[in-house]
């Protein structure tokens, strides 16, 4: 039914309402095929009636504050949009004002009336449809034992408002936001009666705030001066730095301690406990488990729950789970999060699945699916060491819902992201390798995520291939940049994995499409994809310029494999730390491979298909630990990559000395010292005279969910 709604709204916004006939909907929405006869099969009429009823239910409950109402009148499949007005919140003389409009009235235009300007209609309708995508059919996707939820939007900002936290009394909301600035600052507002007030004023991003139990202090991470943890009074007048190179701070329930993760060379990080009143931090020992995700406190403040991984170097792929450890340190114990996910049919946890918050017996977290994410929960009783039962959904996850928090009173807070991304390109001077102009947008339609476009330039720089989302399904499109003509290279279905594009832009290699991970498909425009068996295949990395050699990860993500595409012969080429390789790319002459290792930087490795290189032959090309995606210049004389080494995601370049294959000094060539339009994903493709990348505009706001019964989750 959600697909039905998205399709009819999208067709109207594209000015194709005349095509919304029963026969067309049967094929496009319900996959009935060309033989569909609406006189025999009533599925469109039946589902349209259900959709009308469900829309009425939604706008009378969760959607009462939506700015636009979508209606599907009887006798037609063309939706109309009704603008609704809201009263502006009152502005008190002092203090933090409240979020959330009060619905005052609903306009009743004549049937079929719009907004006058199509641009306003487009923005409003897409906004409403996004909200419906999150909350529509919610009661059908949550646990039967859970009371229906009431949703309230707390912040209204076209940029990014993220990392919410609520005071214990439920009166003060704090968060990170890029309003009034090119970077994130800490903001606060009174829930129910006020407007946002800026608390921090740094020239760097301030993130992940938390409020002390007495509502007097805010702890947060700042990227200024190398990054660290800061304490500031709620009024913003007193501030001090309490830890260097640390992140994800949380107050203990009694406010006496602050937990966080901190950097230590050669590790993912360590757990720290910092006295809130001042004093030296101490490391919370976790035994043989490496902490990799944010720690949250038990209700009694005596234990910490965190995402971790057992240290087992050289013993297969890295696995993650949630672990519980005493505040004073000790042997960390698994609480069975992997089993809870498996029981819910979600698969094992990944690196980003850290616990969001723990209140009473409920732990909440965000679980991603393709380009969306939903809020889930598990039951972990205080004093217990084992999760009970499977993970259960709390929201439908049609958008990106992340950073969940639970208040002491039981409210659920989360940020809801509507990311929009486009492919951009910047011209490069062939002589210097430096930008020769400003970045320009290549794609018109926004992609609903920061990851997934995967733009790939042809060697000439005249074509670019990228992923395109078409009504919930993906396809690879090659665009001729001189004529603007698009050619569909391959249809990917509902799942999207990193594709490989040949250097001429005419062929693509795809893994698991149809979804068979042991198969690679070679696709070209107008032809049926040709399968090739690859039982050890994980993510694909690169295809040599002559089309013969294929680099890919093994299924356990511990080795980079090399396949002779002509014969199918495969050999393990290099080994790396489990789950750490993020990109491997051939130089244009095929003599070297540049690899990016998360946390270690970039390396240049000589390529000879007839022998395996030793670890001693790896040459450090970049010491930027976050340089996850890199690419070569066409002449092999430089490498390009995105890095936050100056605090923002900027484009950097290093020359490679031919005689030693060593890289020179890093040079920032294109700055993005802001967050509203920035290359969040870091994906990069370099060709003759151009570099292509993805620019993302974040749209995130804070929402609150409560049970209709008023009981805590």
TrEMBL record:
Record Pfam families: PD40
Family affiliation? Belongs to the TolB family.
What is the name of this protein? PD40 domain-containing protein
Question: Which species?
Answer: Paludibaculum fermentans
Q: Which PANTHER family match?
A: PROTEIN TOLB, PROTEIN TOLB HOMOLOG
**What InterPro entries does UniProt report for this protein, alphabetically?**
6-blade_b-propeller_TolB-like, WD40
């Amino acid at each position: 039914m959600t697909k039905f709604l998205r399709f009819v709204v999208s067709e109207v916004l594209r000015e194709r309402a005349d095509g919304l006939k029963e026969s067309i909907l049967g094929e496009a929405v319900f996959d009935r095929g060309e033989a569909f006869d609406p006189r025999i099969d009533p599925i469109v009429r039946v589902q349209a009636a259900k959709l009308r009823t469900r829309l009425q239910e939604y706008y009378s409950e969760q959607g009462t504050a939506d700015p636009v109402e979508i209606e599907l009148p009887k006798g037609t499949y063309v939706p109309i949009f009704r603008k609704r007005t809201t009263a502006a919140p009152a502005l008190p003389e002092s203090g933090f004002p409240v979020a959330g409009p009060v619905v005052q009235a609903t306009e009743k235009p004549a049937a079929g009336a719009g907004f006058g300007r199509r641009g306003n209609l487009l923005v409003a309708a897409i906004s409403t449809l996004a909200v419906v995508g999150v909350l529509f059919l919610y009661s059908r996707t949550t646990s039967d034992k859970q009371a229906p939820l009431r949703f309230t939007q707390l912040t209204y900002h076209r940029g990014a408002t993220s990392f919410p936290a609520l005071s214990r009394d439920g009166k003060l909301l704090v968060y990170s936001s890029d309003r009034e600035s090119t970077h994130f600052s800490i903001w606060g507002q009174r829930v129910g009666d006020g407007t946002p007030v800026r608390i921090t004023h740094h020239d760097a991003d301030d993130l992940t705030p938390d409020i002390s139990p007495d509502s007097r202090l805010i702890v947060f991470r700042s990227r200024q001066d190398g990054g660290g943890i800061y304490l500031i009074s709620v009024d913003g007048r007193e501030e001090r730095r309490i830890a260097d190179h640390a992140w994800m701070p949380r107050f203990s329930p009694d406010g006496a301690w602050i937990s966080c993760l901190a950097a230590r060379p050669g590790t993912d990080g360590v757990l720290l406990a910092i006295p809130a009143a001042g004093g030296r931090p101490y490391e919370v020992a976790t035994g043989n488990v490496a902490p990799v995700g944010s720690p949250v406190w038990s209700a009694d403040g005596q234990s910490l729950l965190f995402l971790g991984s057992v240290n087992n170097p050289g013993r297969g792929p890295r696995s993650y789970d949630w672990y519980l450890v005493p505040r004073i340190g000790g042997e960390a114990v698994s609480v069975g999060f992997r089993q809870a996910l498996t029981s819910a049919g979600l698969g094992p946890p990944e690196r980003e699945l850290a616990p969001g918050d723990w209140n009473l017996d409920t732990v909440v977290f965000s679980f991603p699916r393709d380009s969306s994410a939903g809020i889930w929960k598990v039951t972990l009783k205080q004093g217990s060491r084992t999760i009970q039962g499977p993970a259960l959904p709390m929201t439908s996850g049609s958008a990106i819902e992340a950073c969940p928090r639970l208040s002491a009173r039981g409210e659920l807070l989360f940020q809801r992201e509507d990311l929009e991304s486009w492919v951009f390109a910047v011209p490069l001077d062939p002589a210097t390798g430096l930008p020769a102009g400003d970045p320009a947008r290549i794609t018109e339609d926004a992609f609903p995520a920061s990851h997934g476009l995967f733009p790939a330039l042809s060697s000439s720089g005249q074509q670019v291939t990228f992923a395109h989302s078409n009504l919930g399904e993906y396809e690879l499109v090659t665009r001729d940049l001189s004529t603007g003509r698009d050619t569909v290279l391959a249809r990917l279905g509902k799942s999207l994995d990193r594709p490989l594009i040949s250097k001429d832009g005419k062929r693509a290699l795809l893994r698991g499409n149809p979804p068979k991970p042991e198969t690679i498909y070679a696709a070209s425009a107008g032809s049926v994809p040709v399968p090739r068996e690859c039982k050890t295949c994980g993510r694909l990395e690169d295809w040599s310029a002559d089309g013969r050699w294929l680099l890919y990860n093994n299924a356990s993500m511990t080795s980079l494999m090399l396949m002779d595409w002509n014969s199918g012969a495969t050999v393990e080429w290099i080994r790396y730390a489990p789950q750490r390789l993020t990109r491997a790319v051939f130089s244009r002459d095929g003599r070297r491979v540049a690899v990016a290792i998360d946390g270690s930087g970039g390396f240049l490795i000589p390529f000879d298909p007839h022998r395996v290189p030793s670890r001693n032959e790896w040459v450090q090309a970049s010491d930027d630990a976050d340089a996850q995606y890199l690419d070569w210049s066409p002449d092999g004389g430089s490498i390009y990559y995105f890095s936050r080494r100056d605090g923002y995601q900027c484009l950097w370049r290093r020359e490679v000395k031919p005689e030693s294959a060593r890289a020179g000094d890093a040079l920032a060539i294109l700055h993005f010292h802001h967050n509203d339009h920035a290359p969040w994903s870091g994906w990069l493709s370099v060709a003759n005279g151009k570099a292509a990348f993805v620019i993302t505009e974040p749209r995130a706001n804070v929402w609150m969910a409560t049970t209709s019964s008023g009981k805590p989750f």
